[in-house]
Design a protein that fits this description.
single chain, mainly alpha, 21 helices, 59% helix, 0% strand
Length: 432
């Protein structure tokens, strides 16, 4: 198995899968969580921030921002095909199951990456499990960490092949490492523009995953909601009966069907009272980040406030001010929030045994703000709250994430935490 060697890394990965962990109740669900951990870990370098040399994978006519839109799995397949093209073969992979079963593409890839250690002709002279075994041996020679067995490849196991291919990339990406100053600047601009959006995308993804909806697990909001099905399932969870499933395209395998579903999402959103001015189904299909996040936020907000009794923001703010020990906030962007003292007061009002006030620091320096924010999040989790925000959201006074955090604390006080997020069938199973 794989192990995380530092606390920071473990914390990041734990936060990313907290939604899944919340709904672990059966063995296959536990295996699903383990799979998500492994997947997050092996794909962690497949982004431009960690591996800027991935700019070499740009296709003609593309810009760096286009690479940012690709989820790690698609970047990995693009990387694979880049090396197949460089090797001069006509073979390409569209998936990591059927297209790699014969091990030929692996043999070509490994030979292209390290011809001195990987003899393509020798591998291709073999067949079936013998060829698969040979490419696994070659992968280990170039430093790939692999627990892959030949039958995993020959049977086309997509999960194990994903881990195997990613381990090859991590060991030997085979791309020109030098990135020009101009490319660095362009990457930095895209990253800076996307920081807040990325944090919100992460939070909203975790929210969806926390709902425990059957066959729904989101890795990338903008990619995974394109066919409309995920959003429709979330809407049904938030407001049961609102989706007419007879009109839904259950197999949206083309753009027309995807737009049909996403137009339905927009129509239902309006029925739910969302502000969707300028948003059409085609925006969801095309992955318009700003509009997608605006739509998903309204789902998060409606459900979060609905769970605590159909409150609105004003009612939640009133509750906060009643519980905050004399700290009075004007809104969820009030500068007093930065020090996290208001969170400690609210948590104390719910359970006085959670916060160790010897750890809480007074002051408003950058370090104190960071330390207090991290501790407030830790205390909320100890209390049992479902927390999606990061400490940076507190520092930056992100009103959406702070409102959701306050609502999570209110859920704990009202005793409507996870139970309310489960559908009747799941609740029935929990009480059996």
């Amino acid at each position: 198995f794989f192990f995380f060697n530092d606390t920071a890394t473990t914390e990041i990965y734990t936060e990313q899968i907290v939604g899944s962990v919340r709904c672990v109740q059966e063995t296959d669900m536990i295996l699903g969580v383990i799979w998500q951990i492994l997947k997050i870990w092996v794909l962690s370098q497949l982004n431009l921030q960690s591996s800027p040399y991935l700019v070499r994978l740009l296709n003609p006519g593309e810009e760096i921002k286009d690479l940012f839109k690709l989820p790690p799995e698609k970047l990995l397949i693009r990387w694979f095909n880049y090396h197949l093209e460089q090797a001069g073969t006509a073979r390409r992979v569209k998936n990591l199951s059927e297209d790699v079963k014969d091990s030929e593409c692996y043999a070509i890839l490994l030979n292209q990456l390290c011809p001195s250690e990987c003899n393509k002709e020798e591998a291709l002279s073999l067949e079936g499990d013998k060829r698969a075994e040979k490419v696994i041996d070659y992968s280990k020679k170039i430093g790939a960490t692999s627990f892959t067995e030949p039958y995993h490849i020959t049977s086309g196991n997509p999960k194990v092949n994903l881990l195997f291919t990613a381990s090859i990339f991590n060991a030997c990406p085979g791309l020109e490492i030098t990135v020009t100053e101009e490319e660095h600047k362009e990457i930095s601009v895209v990253i800076d523009d996307d920081v807040e959006g990325s944090r919100e995308e992460r939070a909203f993804r975790m929210y969806i995953n926390s709902l425990g909806i059957e066959n729904v697990y989101v890795n990338n909001i903008h990619e995974d909601i394109k066919d409309g099905l995920v959003l429709l399932k979330v809407m049904e969870r938030v407001q049961p009966g609102i989706v007419n499933w007879k009109k839904v395209e259950q197999n949206p395998n083309n753009r027309f069907k995807q737009i049909t579903n996403c137009n339905m999402v927009v129509d239902i959103g309006k029925q739910m009272g969302f502000s969707l001015v300028g948003i059409g189904g085609i925006d969801i299909v095309d992955g318009n980040k700003k509009l997608n996040l605006a739509l998903v936020w309204q789902l998060v907000k409606k459900h979060t406030l609905q769970v605590i009794g159909g409150w609105n923001e004003e009612k939640l703010l009133q509750w906060v001010n009643e519980k905050s020990g004399g700290i009075k906030l004007k809104n969820f962007k009030d500068s007093q929030i930065k020090t996290s003292q208001v969170f400690f007061q609210i948590i104390d009002s719910i359970n006085k045994d959670v916060v160790d006030h010897s750890i809480v620091q007074n002051g408003d320096s950058d370090q104190i703000i960071q330390n207090n924010a991290k501790y407030a999040i830790s205390c909320a989790r100890k209390l049992g709250a479902t927390v999606f925000l990061l400490w940076e959201d507190i520092r930056d006074l992100n009103p959406k994430m702070i409102m959701a955090f306050m609502a999570a604390l209110a859920q704990i006080e009202k005793g409507v935490h996870l139970e309310t997020m489960l559908d009747p069938y799941e609740k029935e199973k929990k009480t059996e």
